[in-house]
Amino acid sequence: MATVLLEGIPRQVDKSDLVYAIRDLLHQPEFHSDIGRPPNFDVQLDRDPTDEFDHNGNGTLTIAADDMVVATFISIYGEPDRPRLETESDWDQGELTFSLTSSSPAMDLVQELENSPFVDPHVAQGREARKRALGTTVDLRSVEFGWFCRDNRFSPEWQARVQTIGDLPVNTMPSLRFNADSNEIWISLGAASTDSMTRQAMVVIRFSRIEALLLDMAEPSTPGIIFTFLSPPALEMHENTENTFGEDIFGVNLFNLFGDDKIRRYRLTAFGSTQERITPYTLFAMRVTCTSRVHLEEFRRMARVASLPRLTDSVPSPVVARALFSATTLDRIEGWLQQLPWSVAFQALSILNAAALDPLELWNLRPRIEALVSDADFGVAKAGEALRNFATKLKDPAALIQDEESIFRCFESVKADARRASPGSVRRIRNPGVFNCYHATVTPTRILLDGPFLDQSNRVLRQYPAHQEYFLRVNFTDEDKLQFRWDWEVDGASFVKERVGGILEQGLHIAGRHFEFLAYSNSALREHAVWFSATFQEPGGGRITAQSIRDGLGDFYWKNLERQPAKLAARMSQAFSATEPSVNLPRDDDMTVLRDIEQNGSVFTDGVGEISRALARRIVKALNKSGRSKRFFIRPSAFQFRMGGFKGVLMVNPDLKDNEIRLRDSQQKFLSPLADIEIAQVFYRAKPFYLNRFLIMILETLGVSAEVFLRLQGEAIREAEAAIESFAGCAGFLDTNGCGTSYHISSIFLHMSRLGLTLGGLGPMAVKDGFLNRSIRFAKNHVLREMKHKARIPVKGSYTLVGVADFTGYLPPNTIFACICLRDKKPFCVKGRVLISRSPQVHPGDVQFVEAIGRPPAGSPFEHESYKNCVVFSTQGERSVPSMLAGGDLDGDEYNLILDPSLFPPSCDPPAQYPPATVKTLDRPCVTKDLTDWVTDYINSDILGLVCHQFLITADFEEAEMCRHRNCITLAELASRAVDFAKSGTPVERRELPKGPKLKPDWSVGEFASAGSLNKGTYESQTAIGKLFRHIDLNRAHKDVARQANREHRDEGGEGELEASLEELETVLNNLSRPRYRGSLPHHSISEAIRSSLQQNYIDTDSPLNPEAMEIVRRIYPYYTVELRSLSLRHSITKQPLTEEEVIMGTIASRTSQPRQRKAMIQQMRTQADELVKHVQAELKEIGDRTELEPDDEDFATLQRRLQVAWLAWRLSVEQRKTFGAKSFGLIALNVIFDGMRAVDDWRAENETRLHIVGRDASMDTHSSPVNPLRDVPESSKASQQEPIHVILRAQANVEGDAMGRCARESQEAYTSGDRARAKELSNQKKLHKARMDELNREASEWIFNENNIDRPPYEIDLHGLYVKEALERMGPAIIEARERGDRQLHVIVGRGMHSHDSIGKLRMAIEYFMLEHHIACQPDPRNVGVLIVKLDEDED
Predict the structure, then answer these.
(1) Percent of the chain residues topping a pLDDT of 70
(2) Which of 84-93, 1019-1028, 1248-1257, 1326-1335 tops mean pLDDT?
(3) Secondary structure of 1086-1121 in the HEC alphabet?
(4) How far apart are CA 1342 and CA 1334, in angstroms?
(5) Could you give phi then psi for residue 321, rounded to 5 degrees?
(6) How far is CA 188 from CA 185, 287, 1420, in A?
(7) Range among 73-87, 153-167, 763-777 with highest mean pLDDT value
(8) Is the N or the C terminus of the chain less surrounded, counting Cβ atoms within 10 Å?
């Protein structure tokens, strides 16, 4: 920092022109190439004593640069004969000189220049001009809050008249002013002052939350302004005092947190107890009256400057006092709700609390609601669901609710639809992995109720299946449903303790039922959500309370847990993690607990245990049978689990047998009896890897050029542009970017491509579907938006994999093993140098190099278990690699394997290493209040996002050092502590954060900033993420998507009607039930392609429909469309519901000034859409009726019935395509169809040999599965007069198999008809037949193998005639024995495939894939195609 004396400045030159001239000099590369950023500077001109000119020709130049830069500047430009300055105006530079002075600049100026980049004078002047334009105070006469009625009248419900603030009388009138810095309106309701203190009751309104402004000129001398809001404004008390401690004002205890000379702000729930009851309902509309027309015009002028909605006139007067929220009315409604069944009262209260109806409108519906409950066609459950659907319609702009008569019509319409619906249409939750979740959202002034919605269940909820409505998920948010976020001067901690802490301690009283705090899951706590429960009585059991539930979770008097509130609550949270029930261990002795592998205090097996292949198969089978999981395209090798007091990851150990499981000490979190193995996640696919802003900033710090990131971004943009060219290409694009996952769109598009369908173009196989095209455009916009604002850039050929440990100790230190298996592609093993990281990265050492070993050599532990799509870390060395990567472990953490060499930095920084976090420990066992206090502490101190964001801002500003700057290193350590806070209970205090730069980079601006412009307080970032941000212009994309969304809402082309009537549904279903009814099939390319494939290979699409299939579709389709409509309304950030395209792609297209809110909405929408789709799929697959029977296998007839149901559902969607929800319902049906096709193909492959032997004779058995064209395989060659033993054994096994299938079908029919005893009996018979069939097949397999291999040389093995499964079981031992003998080759006889469909030998294909999986080279014998030569001394390339 240096000061330069300016002399000889021409008098006519103003300061701005001089600043521009100096800028053009100092911002040349030679003055900042070493520091990365053009230096900031300040010019001050000495005042002219005569005031004739702006200055006297002299001044000072203060430069924020080192001495070398300043000396270079002086040497070039210090003398008058220097190079001429380039200026905007032509002025004589005369004798202007620059000379270095010895004086030091003022400290405040030094700090200002060091912490701020250069600001263009014109920009600064514009900001100051705006601030001055918004600087006038508008005097008010009154402020009223109330209700904006449907007839566009405002009903004032309470006047915001404050007489005293604390013990001080109010001595000023209300006033309104604009805060240009925060883009808010502050309305003071009055101030109370003393000589040393001023307090004001304040209403704070963000510009972005103002919906409309209405002018009230009923009293021209005191005109009024009516505000309506998108969300309630903040109620605050502002205080400017030197020392106020512990004084209670408006029910809030004040603490001096910000120093003696600061303004302190306190958030309130109401201005006193008199308004507290009606405040939640009356903050969406406000009326202020100005003291004169002059003040009104001042407001109008400033509203234009602030870009507020236009102030519109109202004729006649819009104010009518109606006393809608009188105490009498509210008391009457409260008493009535307590008389209703709770599920019905919950829905009625949710309508009132959401301001969907005013109290009188709701009260006038009372007779209709009571009649609904007492109606014999409904009952409590169906009445509650009908009322929830009514609440959804009230929020729908398309419902046109304008007056009381339209409310009644809407109610009666919902009731009529519910009455006509199938009796089974009320949601049937039969799968224990899902339940109906009731929600409450607590804001500063309101309690909003919602649901019930489908959600994934947890261990506790599964314990009480009959009482799940006694559990409530409670979120704590600000009024805009975002997490609490306070300005620095706001004492948010006190408010959270009062509002959130009070509810956690005292509970919630909802519709006559009292709920109290129960616990939380770790993921929910991050969203500031917890579980509450109400007391209930278990049939034949005791009284269940929140405390009794916590007591039953396990023994927490272990490792001092009972004295550590944060860690105790975190351990309890295991029982509340969302999981799928899987399997239980038959015996406790199946489980062993081992010590962790440790070196130098570093735990190499932290969070990972082992499981046998047999138990892993049981888990996969159980998940598949639930109908809620996808069919895994590989055998998963790792599972994230919960079991009793254990948690973490289970990885397959091929040496374990039966139900063996080995856990580690690090996985036991508390003592609890063993329970079912609950699965939180199955790791079966290699996830795409994406760059993000943090990783890009770190890699640029380490030396990776910005051009590399720009190239990768360009490739991703081109792929997005090309996404609409083909189904296969679009599938890859969607899969890479995670769009459409709930509806499995990428999988559906791949199947369409395989059917020969094309996306656009000409010909009978061309698909011209506006719905699909719009959906793809929505996905493309979502991807480009994430790329621009998050730098979420996919990197092809790099992957994100779950981490597991090499428990054998085979891998050397700092090495990994990773086998990547992509769908329909050959597996490959990563080899060579790999850059590895883990999100979030907030330290320059959070990326490291490791060495991947490639294909495992013979004899390695990975030869027989390749852990596909996992990264196996070494358990040797000084420190575990996961711990080097942002403090990772192996309890489910996923790691980024970066294989693109262009992203490799020259070297990596040493990894961070921090001391363990101090755990907050009490001197006594915890009680419930300790847990609730901990939750409030967490909400108050949850600043991880703030710490990480400041890390990025600081790294961007400090271009010379970037992430290595001392403040970034400090922030990285604080981020590590903030991550540990959820378990340690020791928070990061805001005052610990180093001071950040005042100005922010342009990439931090909102979505409404115009291209190329800089908002207030921003500068053009020169880092890679700044260049990436500016490289994408979304204006055109936003307009395109907005046009598409508007088209959908306007119902162009006849699509997108609100809903289908049930009468129309019956008509369509009746038409579809007619034999050979074609309907829209001939004109629909997708339908024709699927029908052709089904007809040829799977089912007779022209056969009469099964009545059961009709009933399933009749029940589930109306349910789905109503749920989808509700979902689209709940998650919209505008007044219009989401389009169907947005829901299926998992995006919200609307731009917003609050992207955090949209991100939260997208996440919630995806979660609920995922559960909805899973539930509908399970219904279409008829899974629910079969769960109690626990079948071991699915017979062919069951698979065919599923295809028939799904085909009917698809055809219905095509016929109903003009109605909302039909098109996405069809996508669900398509996924079930394609999944069913795969299941049939798998069934055929497993049963191929039996079909060969039985041939057509088996089809004559009346109890056998229906004949299918592909099942009519050629008869095997004629046997000799006396059948061989294996043929007899196979025939006997077939008889048992047919009996097994017959028992399974009859068992299902008995269960469906309600005869559960008979169903269970038949299920047991089926199991006996299966056991006999398996034993007979085992004997036949032994006989065939022995006969085939008598006198064969050791290097040959004949598997011909065995089932595929039997052959594979013998393949592994044969390879091991051959290698032990030292053989270089093994000849495997598999047959020519003459009896297989299309002469394709399935046994040969299975053996080839087996070799591929185990990285063993094999090829057909050129002299005999029925023989495979396995090369034991070569790896498969």
Answers:
(1) 86
(2) 1019-1028
(3) HHHHHHHHHHHHCCCCCCCCCHHHHHHHHHHHHHHH
(4) 12
(5) -80, 120
(6) 10, 14, 87
(7) 763-777
(8) C
Query: pTM, whole model, 2 decimals?
Result: 0.79
* Max CA separation in the chain (angstroms): 131
Residues 6+ apart with CB under 8 A from 46: 55, 56, 57, 58, 59
Structure tokens at 17: 């022109």
| Distance between start and end Cα atoms, the chain | 62
- 54 pLDDT more than 50: yes
CB 249 within 8 A of CB 237: yes
Q: Give alpha helix (H) positions in 402-491.
A: 404-420, 459-463
**pLDDT at residue 165 greater than cutoff 80:** no
Cβ 1299 vs Cβ 1307: under 8 Å: no
How many angstroms separate the CA atoms of 844 and 847, rounded?
7
3-state SS assignment for residue 557: coil
Angle at 486 between CA 482 and CA 489, to 5 degrees: 165
| Bridge partner residues of 184 (DSSP) | 179, 206
3-class DSSP state for residue 200?
strand
Rounded-to-integer distance, Cα 1405 and Cα 1422, Å: 17
Please determine, for residue 360, whether its predicted confidence score (pLDDT) is greater than 50.
yes
Residue 15 identity:
K
253-272: string of b/e by CB count within 10 Å (b at 16+)? ebebbeeeeeebbbbbbbbe
Q: Which of 587, 579, 606 is nearest to 595 (CA)?
A: 606
Task: Count the Cβ atoms, other than its own, within 10 Å of residue 1280.
Answer: 7
Indicate the residue type of 1065.
L
Q: Are 1149 and 778 in contact (CB under 8 A)?
A: yes
What's residue 36's pLDDT? 52
What is the SS3 assignment for 1295?
helix
3-state secondary structure 482-536: CCCCCCCCECHHHHHHHHHHHHHHHCEEECCEEEEEEECCHHHHHCCEEEEEECE
Token code pair at residue 1372: 């592994």
CA-based nearest residue to 25, from 93, 109, 106:
93
Structure tokens at 1222: 């039909």
pLDDT of residue 426: 45
Q: Are 533 and 470 in contact (CB under 8 A)?
A: yes
pLDDT in tens, 575-618: 999 888 877 766 666 789 999 999 988 999 999 999 998 899 88
**Helix, strand, coil share of the chain (percent; to 5):** 45, 20, 35
- DSSP string for residues in 265-294: EEEES-SSTTTTTTGGGSSSEEEEEESSHH
Tokens encoding 684: 């079966």
Winning range, highest mean pLDDT, from 160-169, 726-735, 867-876: 867-876
The pairing of strands 1000-1001 and 1018-1019 is: parallel
Does the pLDDT at position 1082 exceed 80?
no
Write the single-letter amino acid at 442.
V
Q: What is the CA radius of gyration of the chain?
A: 36
Angle between the N-to-C axes of helices 327-337 and 342-353, in degrees from 0 to 180, rounded to the nearest 10: 150
Q: Is the pLDDT of residue 1013 over 80?
A: no
Name the pLDDT band for 1283 (thresholds 50, 70, 90).
low
Residue with the larger pLDDT of the pair 454 and 494? 494
Residue 249 has pLDDT above 60, yes or no: no
**Structure-block tokens of residue 84:** 């001429």
Rounded to the nearest 10°, the torsion over CA 666, 672, 675, 677 is: -20
> In this prediction, what percent of the chain has a pLDDT beyond 90?
39
**Which segment, 1243-1257, 1298-1312, 1361-1375, is predicted with the most confidence on average?**
1361-1375
